[in-house]
Every structure is written in structure tokens, then in C-alpha cells.
Amino acid sequence: MASASAASRVRDAAPLFAALGDETRLRLIMRLSSGGPGSITQLSAKSDVSRQAITKHLRVLSDAGLVRSTRKGREQVWDLEPKRLADAHEYLDRISQQWDAALDRLKAFVED
Length: 112
Known about the structure:
Blueprint: H1 2-20, H2 23-35, E1 38-39, H3 40-44, H4 51-63, E2 67-72, E3 75-80, H5 82-111
Antiparallel strand pairs: 1-3, 2-3
Helix pairs in contact: 1-4
């Protein structure tokens, strides 16, 4: 049963980390986390990336649950979804703990 749960966690985490694995998308996440919600116009300002490309990247982030949009008048405003970032943090913490445990086992083996 534990392996089914682990497989489920991996299926949940894979799109999350795939979305974060792109430089433009990571910059969008950083911008939203520091500057708050923004429209496509605001998010593409001072960027070398076109509005159309920003829109596509935001859709990938949305599909991964990292951002959400709401309509304000004629504009879509994008905001960070903190729960999914917390999920990413939890996954990385779990991997870090497993790595630390593996290193402790290796150290004990070498010292014996």
C-alpha cells in the first residue's frame, strides 16, 4: 500500500516540478510572490517574452495548480496559489530527509 501512495505522490509532484523547471515560469512565480497579483500586461512589462508567451506559461502554471486567474473587468488577473508552493516545499523536505537518512546509513556502514 505504501508504494501506491508513493506513486500517487510522484504523479502529483511531477507536473508541479515540470512547471517550475522552466526559467520563464519560475520568474513569473517569483514576480507573483513578491509583487502580488498581476495582469498579463503587468507580468509581461519589462520582459523579453511576448504577452502570448507569458499567457502560455501562465496556463502551464495554472494546470499545475501554481497560479489561478480571476476576471477583473476586461482583464484576467493572475495570482499565486500558495498551497501548491507549500506542496513543493513539502516534497523537497521529504527528499532532503530521505537523503540525510541515506547519508547517516552510509556513515554508520563506513564507520563499522
